[in-house]
Backbone:
């Protein structure tokens, strides 16, 4: 193998590892495109992507000579400078996963070897007259051309995401007019938890975050929140006013094997049991316990969702059994006089996380699809309304018991898909049959193909003013990160004993 072929082989290996880093870490694990703090990192990725794309095309089809070779090395030095700057920004804004650090090390070693080989392969080209000599390399040239196109698309996306993230308003202060309180938030680095903690910090409150990775959590919030890994770090005489229990491994992911189900259950019930054990021994009990749950409690085929009626889990319906176990684990805190309020969440929409960014990306690429017959119910709520409900639960002592946190403008899956595609100026013409989804995803397909019909009856009875009551508003806010009016519109809150049942009529 000659030196130039060796260089191209190392370059293609570098491209493959770089693509793995981008997909596995930047997209799947870290979701940089939806993170407000990642705006500068995304700008650097975008600039570096365009440099890479240009260099790939040069290496694929051209052999620079003389001064043109100097120009190529100048671009290489620019790329190295951007990469070093990127390393500094990464370390300042997030705690990199170990796999990403290892892969970055391998990329750096391979990159050094690659350009050392390139220098040896072109050492005689410096003395030749300045020229851009055509030089094709068979399939390698076409592979590099495809890589150049792919990285250009990625660079454009990163640039647009950086602009959107930079335009994202600062977190709205939550409970800014309320006396300072101490919040204990489990799951504080998740999608909802991050927005809640940032809003409460902006509102001047004290925050303790219970996290499996307190170092990552501390970096996420700039050291402004106390981050602990275990409830054993909480003193018995510690005064915590509000517990917000959001912790739980994502249900969307690997198939629900028996081991996966046990892990999902343990991540919820185990954390809740530990928090409840601290509450049992605490000398000063919390005033309020906000407990996360989901509308999956009612069962995939439920046609009514009575919030105040005791709900029995649907046997054989794993989401229902999971939510029921989660709620049962928290229920005993009420025996200590703690006000327990349960958030039975629908699909939470916002551009910063959850399923919406993935669905929006698919729709942007023309992949908006009806799933099955599309008639399954799609219960959703915007993140702004979840945060607003937390504010009102803190401010109003009558807010207790379970609440369906879904928007009044519920819809079918087909209607959601059409509205999402319309908001992005894309068609929605695809249809995915139910059978292959059930075969591929197993039980998890119920989350896509079935859904309980749920209405926010208690919220509407209590005249809760939704920021995004209809889907068009929610999708616009999700894409643009709209600010909302911080004033309270929650009036007439009654005690749950007054009986606000929910019967969905759709």
Residues:
């Amino acid at each position: 193998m000659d030196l130039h072929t060796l260089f191209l082989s190392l370059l293609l290996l570098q491209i493959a590892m770089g693509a793995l880093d981008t997909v596995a870490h930047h997209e799947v694990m870290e979701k940089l495109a939806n993170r407000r703090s990642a705006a500068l990192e995304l700008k650097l990725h975008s600039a570096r992507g365009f440099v890479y794309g240009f260099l790939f095309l040069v290496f694929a089809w051209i052999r620079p000579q003389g001064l043109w070779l100097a120009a190529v090395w100048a671009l290489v030095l620019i790329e190295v400078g951007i990469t070093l700057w990127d390393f500094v920004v990464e370390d300042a804004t997030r705690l990199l996963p170990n796999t990403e650090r290892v892969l970055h090390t391998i990329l750096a070693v391979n990159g050094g070897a690659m350009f050392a080989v390139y220098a040896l392969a072109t050492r005689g080209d410096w003395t030749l007259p300045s020229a851009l000599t055509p030089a094709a390399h068979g399939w390698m040239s076409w592979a590099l051309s495809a890589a150049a196109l792919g990285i250009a698309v990625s660079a454009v996306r990163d640039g647009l995401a950086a602009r959107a993230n930079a335009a994202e308003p600062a977190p709205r202060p939550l409970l800014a007019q309320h006396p300072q309180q101490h919040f204990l938030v489990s799951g504080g680095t998740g999608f909802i938890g991050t927005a809640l903690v940032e809003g409460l910090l902006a509102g001047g409150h004290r925050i303790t975050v219970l996290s499996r990775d307190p170092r990552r959590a501390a970096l996420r919030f700039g050291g402004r929140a106390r981050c602990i890994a275990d409830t054993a770090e909480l003193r018995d005489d510690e005064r915590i006013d509000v517990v917000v229990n959001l912790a739980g491994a994502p249900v969307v992911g690997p198939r629900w094997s028996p081991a996966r189900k046990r892990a999902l259950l343990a991540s919820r019930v185990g954390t809740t049991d530990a928090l409840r054990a601290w509450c049992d021994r605490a000398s000063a009990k919390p005033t309020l316990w906000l407990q996360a749950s989901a509308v999956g409690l009612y069962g995939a085929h439920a046609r009514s969702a009575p919030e105040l009626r005791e709900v029995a889990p649907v046997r054989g319906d794993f989401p229902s059994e999971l939510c029921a176990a989660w709620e049962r684990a928290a229920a005993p805190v009420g025996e200590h006089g703690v006000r327990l309020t349960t958030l039975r969440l629908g699909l939470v929409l916002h551009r910063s996380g959850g399923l919406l960014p993935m669905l929006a990306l698919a729709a942007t690429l023309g992949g908006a699809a009806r799933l099955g017959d599309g008639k399954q119910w799609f219960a959703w709520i915007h993140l702004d309304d979840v945060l607003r409900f937390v504010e009102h639960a803190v401010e109003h002592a009558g807010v207790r018991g379970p609440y369906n946190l879904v928007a009044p403008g519920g819809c079918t899956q087909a209607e959601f898909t059409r509205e999402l595609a319309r908001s992005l100026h894309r068609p929605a013409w695809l249809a995915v049959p139910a059978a292959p989804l059930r075969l591929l995803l197993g039980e998890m397909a119920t989350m896509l193909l079935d859904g309980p019909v749920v209405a926010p009856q208690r919220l509407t009875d209590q005249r809760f003013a939704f920021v995004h009551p209809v889907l068009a508003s929610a999708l616009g806010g999700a894409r643009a990160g709209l600010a909302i009016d911080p004033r309270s519109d929650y009036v007439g809150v009654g005690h749950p004993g007054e009986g606000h049942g929910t019967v969905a009529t759709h």
User: Anything to note?
Assistant: The mean pLDDT is 88. The two ends are 69 Å apart (CA to CA). The first helix runs from residue 3 to 29. The first strand starts at residue 62 and ends at 65.
